[in-house]
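Readers of this paper often ask what the protein records in our data store actually look like. Nothing more is needed to write down the fold, since each code stands for a local backbone conformation. Below, we set out a record of this kind in full and without editing:
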Amino acid sequence: MNLHLCIDDKFHQGFIRHQKTYAPDSHNDYYVVGTARRKQGTPEDQEVTRISIAGMKKILRSSGMKRYRQVLFHSLPGRFRKHLLPFIPADMPVTWIFYGYEYYHRRAVIREYLGTATRAYYDSMQNPQYYQLKFQRVLDILRREDDQYQKDLQRIDRFAHWNPAEYHMIRDRYDLTHMEYAPFAMGQKIHKNVPDLRHRDLLFGHSGAVTVNHLDGIKALSEELIAGYDRIIIPFSYGANKRYEALVRKAARNKMGDKALFLHRFLNRQSYFNVLSRVKLAWMPQMRGMGGGNLLYCLQNHIPIVLPEESGFYRYYTGQGFRVFSMKDHQHKAPVLHDEEKRRNQELLYQNFGLDTIAEQYRRLVGR
């Protein structure tokens, strides 16, 4: 029996569907911790128990924990690390399914993944959290937060993620020599679209998170490149404060004019794919691993991807042999995927993210 802990039921839904398909003989209990009870809709929702931090802590301390063979954290936010991780029985293996935000948005880390212009905003009084962040950083120093973070992570036995570079980064940074790597991708089927040949749109980023580095990406996008596209689609449906959004909107309007189209409303999967069917280039300024589903979609549908060379995604994909493009080399000209590069990308996509690969990863993660 596996015990799964998560902060948001939307992450559990996809995992449960794939677990039933790929590892149907495994037994799993799913908990959303710290989330208010809501109406349960999908069959996957019916299998999820919503519980408070205090309630989960009681379960972890109880004799009932003997029926579980491992605990899996679907992301490891600070409140889980501080209030739940210490109460798991010492002899029980713990797996961290890494999402990224729980590490890259830590106050001790986030600035390393911001471009020059975005970091200037983050460190200025334009950021509505400026004084709060300064105060919290002082508290982090007084509480020796980074030392405690390293100590807490010693309790993690397995790091589950599709990019081994992120495992090695965290393992080496915090001297986690005992922590094993479990290759794992969540397994959403990569949608294959019928391209809309009447339009030429450019996809800019994937969300409103500050780590997308919108300001740096806008600065790097040349007027010549902008002129070759009908619209610049900028998803902004989650992850931003209003001050940052207004700043990005102003910078985009000044550079792109009426071509800038902000997606403020969260679109369902099919509606979003319909928008992406018009995209002929993906301009992705993020340096951290994020928006992976968007990049897989672009690879599947032969849409060229442009990334900063210092991006973890750029290093991963080029290291695996995929053809993606450097932002430094393509500020003024649109990259082109040749037929052989498209074929190679498809082969590598199947090898790394195909259904057979995903199925085996699920079996290893939760199977006996």
